[in-house]
TrEMBL record, chains A, B, C:
Residue ranges constituting the Rieske domain according to the UniProt record: 33-135
Entry keywords, A to Z: 2Fe-2S, Dioxygenase, Iron, Iron-sulfur, Metal-binding, Oxidoreductase
Name under which the protein is recorded: Phenylpropionate dioxygenase-like ring-hydroxylating dioxygenase large terminal subunit
Claim: Metal-binding is one of the keywords in the record: yes
Organism: Paraburkholderia rhizosphaerae
Gene3D superfamilies: Naphthalene 1,2-dioxygenase Alpha Subunit, Chain A, domain 1 (3.90.380.10), Rieske [2Fe-2S] iron-sulphur domain (2.102.10.10)
PROSITE patterns the UniProt entry points to: RIESKE (PS51296)
InterPro entries membership: Cholesterol_7-desaturase, Rieske_2Fe-2S, Rieske_2Fe-2S_sf, VanA_C_cat
Molecular function as annotated in GO: 2 iron, 2 sulfur cluster binding; dioxygenase activity; metal ion binding
SUPFAM superfamilies: Bet v1-like (SSF55961), ISP domain (SSF50022)
Pfam families, per the entry: Rieske, VanA_C
């Protein structure tokens, strides 16, 4: 890790001679834990179909309440298993009734003897934490040694957390850049008034980059929603002393606001999960934690306003990143001309940490051996 | 023809070394008669546009009531002739009025002299039988010697026949496999209760394969719709003695139910006509004939129920085969892993009887000589 | 220029040995002035996004009322500038606020010093005439020496002009052929009764072709709308003495009707501007001028009827040319079999005057030098 000046003289990102991969075609690295659904979306005794980068995955909550994840394609004729029926701790395909346990093994074909059972389907390591169902879509043998990410302040009772997210029709890299470049306050001029961000310092490591900002108001009044997000409103003050730190810790992103006394007043954890094989769409899962003030009920009263405020901003961000993806599609290449050094560092990071672009859907491989079903 | 045991030890379908054509890319063989519309869809003095495997075809019913079939593309500027005007026994293109007779010959261009008439369009052999309009899309010289298929019991007054059909977004082969594999009763568990099919024997020839089933009820009551379809309900009996025979006689399919005394109580004739050039959609034409009981009016009274029952089942089948096509599209290949021998035989049959995949739309060829218009 | 007989013996259009470009893939030549919007669509202080052959272009009307045209892609991250904010005589991108003047130069990046401003975006020569905003999408250095086209009788107070147009999903060449081939009256049989066109003579030059027609009524009464369009109705007369001249003066088209005394009673100017990169859609801009009769108010009274009449005809034409494009798409080639000599000449003209097909969207090139913003 090393600190660098927030302004560099040469924002060049293409070293002479070396061809640079088009960032918008870099696939996200599968050897990480990704949330694929909120817990409440997978009801007891039901199956729920999701996707990771074009791979269909079925999340099954058994009658005992456990969740497991399988390839969402019957080994027989590849119809989605999420149309099937949960039977105890297994899932039965809706077409001819082939049945799979949590390890993907085929344990029953109603019209065949037990001795002739065919191979099953791929199982994915799966964990349920804080209302999110995480799946490890990469190399199975790495799942155990790869920790789940820390989820901000969601588990801390001193904070109130909002869960949010939506499908966004763009490559995940646009999302990271959008959040990290606070010079885009102009986009939110109706919500944020005329705020100006100032980057203080940035730091980076092998798989992360972060930047600090302070904000000052150029003109106009502080909207009430902004006051809520940025902690206590301090009337009459032109310059916020709060520091906002935005960090991409591959593949996740966080945004934290601390007061000058060091109190963490806002803590956002967010991740952008590619849906299609081309990775031109993503589903966003966000946990926005706000520190409860001394009088906790004030926050509860203001909560609907905070939701409205963040929804509006999220909607504007979604609109603009989808326009960026459209431009990339029309041009067939990334023409971005970046002048802000931290964004160039972020772009390098996302390129270096991503998967090679050759990754595509592959035929069903039988699992080498049954695994235990305790998740 | 030879009978084989319903259960074989090795369901292998890929002989070592020989690459197998992807069944879902095998085009249907055009040298057969295919129904392209119901008679009532082609009104007197009107033209009706249909498609066979991407080829646009116009069906014209003249003022005298005859039906003929032409390429649905004006020789002049290729606009669809079905937008035109029937003029006596001919069709006039809606754009500049070029006029074609039943043989496809251009017999008038309003602004040219008769001596300068251009070539016409392709005509297709066309026959109207039992409310269906059949066209022979293949080599014209084979039409005469190729018989129309027998249409089940539709012409027999002892049976009442329901005509049905719908567009289904899948390759025709999924339809054949769906109907022939009666192990998919699980799909219809809401309609059929818990029926279990048992295959008795199968037989095959060069261009056909057939299989016999009996059924037994695993649990629950016999739904009333099922009783109607499977002939007289025999209360209290757990095991049906009726035998169901399903046969693909390329390119058609039949399903017949006979009682133990040999009475044919249900007789279904069905065909799946590809619509698009890729043959990923089909239009189904079905004739479902049910033997009238001694008291014929009982069947009439139960008819709406029978319609509802078959609609529901057809809807479930359509849903699942469209999921199969989607899976094939996503994978780009057929990953089916079949364990039921008769389906593997059916798949071989459909591959062997199909057309080579090179077949595509070709430029208009003028007809070598005018044919007679009596259809 | 030379006059030729309206009927030739050989309508061959493919000289032996020479491969002919598919006319429907010939791109329109960009070195001309094209209207991209009506003036009223670009409000004061607003930006409006349009397209020319796949190139996104933003039309900006500044606070002083001037209009300028830029590439509709921010130099920073390529989002459309038409989502931005007009600021005096400049446009500010909605995302990070980069600001461009009428020459495309970037004149402000809110978070960078003036000495570090990046390159800007492409500017297009732009002129506003008679309610149309014209842009020159080709080589900038040719704009000055290329005149705007004469716009029929729109500026003449003796005529009343209707402005009309719509998007049409076809290549512009189908539009030219549709208007020039008056043998397509059969398409408008409901509106025009049974009119028969007769071509008198045709003439051509390097970049134009024109043809004269007279009309006679075959049967039925003259519809009142037709009477309006074709000038004064002359009851009882079977044969119109009026002469219609249709001319393609690349890339524009005109249609004029003159009485036998030489009075110009109708004057249409029209152009078809490709929208997408494949040029399979166009936006039509038309100016239809009708000579005011002695009692001018008669025309005003009949005006709604004239609008209805022309709308209906335009709708039928749009329907048929879209069917032509569909046929071309399905066939993958132009199978037209033309027998009318003037249309073959028109086809040659459109091929010869068109751009080479290699033209596609290209990366942003910075403007060599700032230009003056007086349009
Ligand atoms: S497709 Fe799943 S059991 Fe047959
Ligand atoms: S397109 Fe059919 S007559 Fe011209
Ligand atoms: S994308 Fe236009 S200012 Fe950043």
């Amino acid at each position: 890790m090393h600190a660098v000046s927030p302004v560099e003289s040469s924002p060049v990102e293409t070293p002479a001679g070396a061809p640079v991969r088009d960032l918008r075609r870099v696939h996200i690295h599968p050897d990480n834990w990704y949330p694929l659904a909120w817990s409440h979306e997978v009801k007891r005794g039901k199956a729920h179909g999701v996707r990771f980068a074009g791979e269909p995955i079925v999340l099954v909550r058994t009658e005992s309440g456990n969740v497991f994840a399988l390839e969402d394609r019957c080994a027989h004729r590849q119809v989605p298993l999420h149309g099937g029926v949960v039977d105890g701790e297994a899932i039965r395909c809706c077409y001819h009734g082939w049945t799979y346990d949590c390890s993907g093994r085929c344990i029953d074909v109603p019209y065949l003897g037990r001795e002739r059972l065919p191979n099953g389907v791929r199982a994915y390591p799966c964990r349920e934490v804080e209302g999110l169902i995480f799946v490890f879509p990469g190399k199975r043998e790495l799942a155990e040694s790869t920790p789940l990410p820390p989820l901000g302040s969601v588990a801390n009772r001193a904070y109130k957390t909002r869960r949010f997210g939506r499908e966004v029709a763009c490559h995940y890299s646009f999302m990271h850049e959008n959040l990290m470049d606070m010079n885009h306050q102009f986009l939110h001029r109706r919500q944020m008034g005329q705020m100006r961000a100032r980057s203080l310092s940035r730091r980076r490591g092998d798989d992360w980059v972060e930047v600090d900002y302070t904000f000052s108001r150029e003109a106009g009044q502080q909207p009430i929603g902004e006051a809520l997000v940025f902690g206590q409103s301090r009337q009459g003050q032109k310059k916020h002393k709060d520091v906002m730190t935005i960090r991409t810790q591959y593949p996740y992103q966080t945004l934290q606001i601390r007061t000058s006394e060091g109190t963490l007043v806002m803590d956002l954890w967010i991740v952008y999960v590619p849906l299609d094989a081309e990775q031109r769409t993503n589903r966003t899962f966000g946990l926005l934690s706000v520190k409860r003030p001394k009088l906790g009920f004030l926050l509860d009263a203001a909560w609907p306003l905070l939701i409205w405020f963040t929804e509006r901003i999220f909607k504007e961000d979604r609109w603009i990143v989808e326009r960026e993806q459209e431009a990339h599609d029309a041009q067939g290449a990334d023409w971005n001309h970046e002048v802000f050094p931290v964004i160039n560092e972020l772009r390098d990071l996302l390129r270096n940490c991503g998967a090679p672009p050759a990754r595509r859907v592959v035929p069903i491989e039988p699992e080498p051996a049954a695994q235990s079903c305790v998740s």
